[in-house]
């Protein structure tokens, strides 16, 4: 049986993982589509080697995860498959339901089920004790299984375009994940950000684009480790940027703000008071000369640079 063997070249860690180079843009392409992007340079690299010899109670290093075999269909995870070597699973096509053949893959660390048709995930997902990254962009799920709260190694979860989700229930589950650093809640039509967001104390990277809320609760501004924020509203339902930008200065670690196509006419002077900010990614569709605009705004705010580079890297890599 033919197996899909893909080795992904490691990319520089993103701002939310604390390892990206200054000035590198890490916005998730899934914020503009429900599918997960894969860099073409990565998909061209293939190998027959398996670097993993780790057991289910010894998570692989990031380097080894990056070189591990990847399985992409339930047919590949056969009875003959050595389940201990299944480190990554990314569905080849849009999955209709959770692949039950994975349940024995105790060393699974990266799970990507884009546009999952099922309305729920099995609670048995809690048995993947080494799981560090879950990408469910475009999934039809209505809630997260409570078992995800038992994943003590989970660092990244992307829920972009999971439009049926109950955000309060989601945050009630995720607040139990002590290592959670990277979260995408973009393109979900929730109207109020729950105060529970403030309980995700280790959060470093957050994406909340194109939602329906107006402003953020005071608890949001207690996220002392938040380094990267992507926040941009729909044109017809704008966020209360005046209130949000005024309060963002309370975030001591915020170094990068991603706000392209937010319908803004100007950056507020209060941004000069942000204690750690060094880069703002901003671009509007009506700019005739975007580069010139960026240079003008960078000159006005000497404490950070304004970039119009909106290239992206998927959350898939943020394990």
UniProtKB/TrEMBL annotation:
The keyword Signal applies. Residues 26-56 have a biased composition (Polar residues). It comes from the Bacteria. It holds the Pfam family LRR_14. GO terms for cellular component: cytoplasm. Residues 159-259 form the Disease resistance R13L4/SHOC-2-like LRR domain. Residues 21-58 are annotated as: Disordered. Residues 1-18 form the signal peptide. Keywords: Leucine-rich repeat, Repeat, Signal. InterPro entries: LRR_dom_sf (IPR032675), LRR_domain-containing (IPR050216), LRR_R13L4/SHOC2-like (IPR055414). The keyword Signal applies. This is Leucine-rich repeat containing protein, putative. It comes from Microscilla marina ATCC 23134. The lineage of its organism: Bacteria, Pseudomonadati, Bacteroidota, Cytophagia, Cytophagales.
